[in-house]
Write a structure and sequence with these properties.
With about 160 residues, the protein is mainly alpha-helical. Helices cover about 80% and strands about 0% of the residues. It comes from Xenopus laevis.
């Protein structure tokens, strides 16, 4: 599916989906990827010897918190709790914009922690992977935020 097809499909489906359509519609399908990559950040940071607790503590807080909130939001969408109300569309846009800011700050701090552990061998490799996944999760949340804001603008 090309980017043009995704944009056309998105333009015709402006309401929040419910049921299994949640996992098949754009940008809600990104929530599954956000969970996967956010979970990988969480696992990789937890697997390292956290030598910089101030930096990596924030990374863990962000990855665990946003993993939990995204999972809860995905379950609520699947259950159809939102009933297509405009307030849920606004909440989705705000949530993903805040998530982008949090994940961007966490990714930068994780990159800093990675640079500081360059001579620790395996821990350095785990930190590199966590940094890459943190920036990828940030990108996913950013794409979702942009399309959520566009949906909110169109709904109002």
């Amino acid at each position: 599916m090309s980017a043009v097809n995704i944009a056309q499909t998105y333009a015709t489906n402006s309401a929040l989906p419910s049921g299994i359509r949640t996992c098949l519609s754009f940008p809600e399908a990104l929530m599954v990827l956000e969970l996967i990559f956010g979970g990988l950040v969480w696992i990789l940071v937890a697997a390292t010897k956290v030598s910089l607790p101030l930096l990596q503590g924030w990374v863990m807080f962000v990855s665990v918190t946003l993993f939990a909130f995204t999972l809860i939001l995905l379950i609520l969408y699947i259950l159809g709790i939102h009933k297509g109300r405009c307030t849920w569309i606004l909440m989705d846009a705000i949530y993903h914009c805040v998530a982008v800011l949090f994940y961007l700050s966490a990714a930068v701090l994780q990159a800093n922690a990675t640079i500081r552990t360059w001579n620790f061998g395996r821990i350095y490799q785990l930190n590199i992977a966590a940094t890459v996944f943190a920036f990828f999760a940030t990108l996913l949340y950013l794409i979702h935020a942009l399309f959520s804001v566009l949906r909110w603008k169109r709904s109002g």
